[in-house]
């Protein structure tokens, strides 16, 4: 049952990939048709050349010893013209397909990046970034390169094959039948080899995605690898996947490459038979020597498209394998569309309420249970608890990265599920533990949340965030180029820049997730001072493991196993002498 199921699934995937591929190239149907017509025209012009060369031979033989060089030279000029015309048409179709391929690649990559923006966060929780990047780069390159090659090659081969068959039949039906008998045998052999090789092409593309994921992980975590002396293990893990990729690629190429020699054997047998029978027919006077010369050239051309079609099977298999992965990703479920019409809040006050919210990442495995709390405008709310308590999940629900399994969330009394996601997210600024900066200038990074911010607004935000003196010390100030990997800016300074970015956006509410972690005491004090300015007068949600940083919060929610187990101010919770007091005292004891 297993193999049959897999075969049915593979056939279904191949059919789906082919259907989606055809749909995706519809916008380019006209130039592709033009290129096919040009390819056909080039093949048609080349078809007459053997016939004319045979006529030249007949003229020379029939007029010997006084050879008619006038007729021969006239036909020679015609042959040269046909060669040149075929070459021009061939170049024109190649040029058109090159333009189509470049634009099709651009459109596919745009489709993938746009798809990424529409994908739910849950997809990226389950799939490695490296595999997605591989689909966007390697698979698209394979697809578009194969497409540009095969459209022209297959068009030329089919036209040449049909045209040559016609010309051969016109010269000699018996000789043609001898040549044609090898075709069904070749097709049968190639079909068997193609089906066998396809599974290895799929394995090759899938393993390439895994390999890219490992490269991304090892690159991003190279410091952790070195600090734990894990280089040998990381290299061994990479080598294992790399060897698997090499084996799959080798098998794919080896088996697909069998098509050419297998076909070549049968076509050469037919070629030998034609030479022997053709010589007998000339002796018997059934055909002229020029016709046999032309026929032998046609046999050579007849064999060539068969072998070329056979040799393209490897490329076609790679194309189908890449298509499966690309269009599989493009067909993934997207975020549910925003409601229409959607609620729009004007002058957000910042009252947030969770109404009996429950949430499950996996069915039957609750992460948030009966979460209810009302947050008044301007309140600073701290969410604390052990790892896995559900703190970050609450923020994900608030930002509508996920939707509650049951219950709902309101802002100023309006359910956020009835608003556009972009409008909900625009109400919040976020400062996270991961200080993501983007490749560009300091000014561009600080304007990321408010594209129309003026330089004066940016400078005021930088000053309030205690980072202006750091920016001014850079070689080109606000025009200095930075990125996440910039080594002239410390981790704490990057965090201050992200706070300045949030201040520039000036949202009505804030979310802070471990914003003071992994910095020295002095920088932590600067960050804490900046955060106090950032949250002043705004409804804010703060996730923190360092409980010392949230002692002044208006409300502390203590979570455990997805539930609020305690709530109150710092002093109120200490007086309860419960779970919060236990957490706080354990941290104090550690210090």
Structural class based on helices, strands and sheet pairing? alpha/beta
Query: What profile does the largest beta sheet have?
Result: 6 strands, mixed
**What is the overall number of helices?**
21
Helix content: 55-70%
Euclidean distance between termini CA atoms: 62 Å
* Nearest-integer average pLDDT: 82
Overall 3D geometry? elongated
> Widest sheet: strand order?
6-9-10-3-11-12
Radius of gyration: 35 Å
State the total count of DSSP E strands.
12
Beta content = 5-15%
Low-confidence stretches: 1-7
Topology:
Elements: H1 2-24, H2 29-63, H3 69-118, H4 121-126, H5 129-171, H6 173-180, H7 182-220, H8 222-227, H9 231-257, H10 259-284, H11 289-311, H12 313-330, E1 352-362, E2 365-375, E3 380-384, H13 391-398, E4 406-411, E5 414-415, H14 421-426, E6 428-431, E7 440-441, H15 442-446, H16 455-464, H17 468-472, E8 481-482, H18 491-505, E9 509-513, H19 521-535, E10 539-543, E11 555-560, E12 563-568, H20 570-576, H21 579-590
Helix pairs in contact: 1-12, 2-3, 2-5, 2-11, 3-5, 5-6, 5-7, 5-11, 5-12, 6-10, 7-9, 7-10, 7-12, 10-11, 16-18, 18-19
Name its key features.
single chain; about 600 residues; alpha/beta; six-stranded mixed beta sheet; four-stranded antiparallel beta sheet; 12 strands; about 65% helix; about 10% strand
Explained architecture:
The chain is an alpha/beta fold. The protein has helices at residues 2-24, 29-63, 69-118, 121-126, 129-171, 173-180, 182-220, 222-227, 231-257, 259-284, 289-311, 313-330, 391-398, 421-426, 442-446, 455-464, 468-472, 491-505, 521-535, 570-576, 579-590; strands at residues 352-362, 365-375, 380-384, 406-411, 414-415, 428-431, 440-441, 481-482, 509-513, 539-543, 555-560, 563-568. It has a six-stranded mixed sheet, with helices on both faces. Helix 2 packs parallel to helix 5, helix 3 runs antiparallel to helix 5 (129-171) and helix 5 runs antiparallel to helix 11 (289-311). It starts with a helix and ends with a helix.
């Amino acid at each position: 049952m297993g193999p049959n199921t897999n075969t049915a699934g593979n056939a279904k995937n191949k059919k789906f990939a082919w259907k989606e591929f055809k749909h995706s190239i519809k916008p380019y149907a006209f130039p592709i048709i033009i290129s096919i017509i040009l390819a056909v025209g080039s093949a048609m012009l080349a078809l007459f050349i053997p016939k004319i060369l045979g006529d030249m031979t007949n003229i020379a033989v029939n007029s010997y010893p006084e050879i008619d060089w006038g007729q021969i030279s006239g036909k020679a000029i015609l042959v040269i013209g046909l060669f040149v015309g075929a070459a021009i048409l061939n170049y024109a179709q190649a040029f058109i397909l090159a333009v189509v391929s470049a634009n099709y690649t651009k459109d596919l990559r745009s489709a993938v990046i746009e798809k990424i923006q529409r994908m739910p966060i849950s997809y990226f929780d389950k799939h490695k970034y490296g595999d997605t990047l591989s689909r966007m780069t390697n698979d698209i390159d394979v697809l578009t390169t194969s497409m540009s090659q095969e459209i022209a090659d297959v068009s030329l081969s089919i036209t040449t094959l049909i045209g040559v068959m016609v010309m051969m039949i016109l010269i000699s039906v018996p000789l043609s039948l001898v040549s044609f008998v090898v075709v069904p045998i070749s097709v049968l052999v190639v079909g068997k080899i193609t089906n066998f090789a396809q599974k290895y092409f799929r394995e090759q593309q899938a393993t390439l995605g895994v390999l890219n994921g490992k490269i991304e992980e090892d690159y991003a975590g190279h410091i952790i690898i070195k600090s734990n002396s894990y280089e040998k293990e990381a290299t061994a893990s990479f080598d294992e996947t790399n060897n698997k990729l090499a084996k799959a690629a080798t098998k794919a190429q080896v088996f697909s490459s069998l098509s050419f020699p297998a076909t070549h054997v049968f076509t050469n047998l037919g070629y030998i038979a034609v030479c022997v029978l053709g010589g007998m027919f000339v002796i018997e006077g059934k055909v002229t020597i020029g016709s046999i010369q032309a026929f032998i050239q046609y046999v050579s051309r007849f064999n060539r498209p068969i072998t070329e079609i056979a040799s393209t099977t490897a490329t076609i298999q790679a194309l189908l394998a890449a298509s499966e992965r690309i269009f599989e990703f493009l067909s993934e479920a997207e975020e549910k569309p925003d409601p229409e019409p959607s609620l729009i809040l004007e002058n957000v006050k910042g009252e947030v309420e969770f109404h009996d919210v429950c949430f499950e990442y996996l069915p039957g495995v609750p992460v948030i249970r009966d979460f209810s709390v009302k947050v008044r405008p301007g309140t600073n709310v701290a969410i604390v608890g052990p790892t896995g308590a559900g703190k970050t999940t609450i923020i994900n629900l608030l930002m509508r990265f996920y939707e509650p399994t049951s219950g709902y969330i309101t802002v100023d009394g309006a359910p956020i599920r009835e608003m556009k996601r972009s409008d909900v997210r625009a109400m919040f600024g976020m400062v996270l533990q991961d200080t993501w900066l983007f490749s560009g200038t300091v000014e561009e990074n600080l304007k990321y949340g408010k594209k129309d911010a003026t330089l004066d607004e940016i400078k005021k935000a930088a000053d309030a965030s205690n980072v202006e003196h750091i920016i001014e010390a850079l070689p080109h100030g606000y025009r200095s180029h930075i990125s996440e990997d910039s080594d002239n800016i410390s981790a704490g300074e990057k965090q201050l820049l992200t706070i300045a970015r949030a201040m520039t956006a000036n949202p009505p509410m804030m979310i802070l997730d471990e914003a003071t972690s992994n910095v020295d005491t002095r920088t932590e004090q600067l960050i804490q001072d900046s955060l106090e300015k950032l949250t002043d007068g705004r409804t804010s949600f703060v996730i923190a493991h360092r409980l010392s940083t949230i002692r002044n919060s208006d409300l502390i929610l203590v979570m455990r196993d997805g539930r609020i187990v305690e709530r109150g101010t710092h002093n109120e919770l200490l007086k309860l002498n419960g779970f919060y007091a236990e957490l706080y005292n354990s941290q104090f004891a550690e210090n």
